Amino acid sequence: MGVCAICHRTDVRYSVEHVIPEALGGCYVRKQMVCVDCNSKLGARVDAALVNHDLSKMFRLVHGLGGKAKKPPNPFAGEYRLRSDPDRKMRIRIGPGGRLTPYFLTETGQKNLPDGRVGVTISVDRADEHKVEPIVRTIAKRLGGSAEEALGTMQKTVTSSEGGLTGELTLDLRNFKIGLLKIAYEFAVDRIPDYVESGDAKQIATILREARFDEVERYVIGNGFDRGVMAPLSNFLGYEGVKHYLVLSSGGEGVRCFVHLDGLFSIGATLSTRVFGSLFEIGVNDVESRRFKVWGIEDMPVSTSYRPLLSFETEREAKAFREAERAKDFAYDSGGGGWKLFARDGRYIGMDIEDVVKTLAPIRSEIASGGMREEFCLGEGIYLRVSGSGEIVRVLAVRAEHVWKKL
Ligand SMILES: [Zn+2]
Q1: From the CA of 13, how far away is ligand 1's center (Å)?
Q2: Ligand 1 centre from 255 Cα, in Å?
Q3: Where does the pLDDT of residue 58 fall: very low under 50, low under 70, confident under 90, or very high at 90 and above?
Q4: Nearest alpha-carbon partner for 257 in 278, 272, 235
Q5: What pTM was computed for the model?
């Protein structure tokens, strides 16, 4: 029977859980992970702290991600003032296509003039110019004056907002991290079968369920803004396009997960100090194509190149071959599976290098920078044929260099 990853109750009704919030372009969804109750609690406090961070709001604005309200929030909500005239109050509005537009608030003021008349100032945004006349009429009526006279003597000045606005932007430096911890935790629950029942998992679940912001710090690595925490993963992550990355590792040090939300946050999380077997997986959430996919180290896309270890009868033969090998157009005969393999008599044995390597266990294998290096022993009587000359040369082993294509 399943268990809710947050309250650990069984016998619950599940709700669709977005591991990475939908409002941030998340499309990693689990249907049997979090119960209805916990889902709404997480949404209201844990996810909210992350998706309503001002930086997240900017991300949502740029990528047109509304969330439940369908309309992206305004990261510049609130009141601003004109830098050149701090008495002028303004707002920043989001226009069509997410364009940010400064907007003057409508304000009126009046003062008594020495000749007994009343001077009135009305400030409006250019978009609201049509509102001036009704405002004048309302004020004139209230003051018992003539609206026509006021409109006739009205003077107009234009203020530009080009000099910039000043206002406050308050950045949360702490609470958003709980939303990142949730993502890391749920990725581990999803990928490591027994993790959810562990003591560490239960403690983290409690922190998430009760939104204990101050306890998150014990589990996270980095301040949340520093992409440096992702540096050890530079062989794997390409950062092309708009992608969120989740990198989960389990081994001798326990369980760790790194979360990188494109252009926003990067954080590591220590999810357990217990060992749950060996695992290394990368989840890639492509915001543009709306896809989420998990890659294991074995199924990471690689480009492989081979180098043959050749055998020659004599030193002279070897030297002559090395010479020929330097020619610009030097190549071995190959088919769809790489080099074709031949017998001593020059007969094609019907197999290519990639077919053979698949059936062999490497005699040596090591992690190299950016990929993996393996050596395969090919056995007796296997030859390569040089294109053009048709010369055959005995090959004892091959070295395969696998370079990971960055995700
Ligand atoms: Zn629950």
Answers
A1: 9
A2: 23
A3: very high
A4: 272
A5: 0.81
Expressed in angstroms and rounded, the spacing between residue 27 Cα and the centre of ligand 1 is 21
Average pLDDT, the chain: 93
* Helix H or strand E segment including 200: helix 199-209
Q: Assess whether pLDDT exceeds 80 at residue 369.
A: no
- pLDDT for 252 equals 87
CA of 41 to the centre of ligand 1 (A): 9
Summarize the confidence of residues 314-329 as an average pLDDT. Answer: 93
* Residue 24 φ then ψ, to 5°: -105, 20
The two three-digit tokens of residue 129, written as one number = 């110019």
pLDDT at 68: 67
Q: Are 41 and 209 in contact (CB under 8 A)?
A: yes
> CA-CA distance, 36 to 271, in Å (whole number)?
24
CA of 19 from ligand 1 middle (Å) equals: 14
Collect all residues with Cβ–Cβ distance below 8 Å to 192 and sequence separation of at least 6.
248, 250, 255, 276, 277, 279
Going from the Cα of 318 to the center of ligand 1, the distance in angstroms, rounded, reads 70
**Mean pLDDT across 337-350:** 95
Buried-exposed string 265-285: b where 16+ CB fall within 10 A, e elsewhere: bbbbbbbbeeebeeeebbbbb
Domain range annotation of the chain: 14-54+173-296, 80-166, 302-404
Residues counted in the chain: 407
Report CA(60)–ligand 1 centroid distance (Å).
28
Pick from 238, 354, 322: nearest CA to 286? 238
Q: Which helix (H) or strand (E) holds 342?
A: strand 338-342
Asked if 76 and 255 count as a contact pair (C-beta separation under 8 A), the reply is no
The SS3 assignment for 242 reads coil
| Residue pointed to by tokens 């710090």 | 217
42 CA distance to ligand 1 middle (Å): 10
Query: 3-state DSSP call for residue 162?
Result: coil
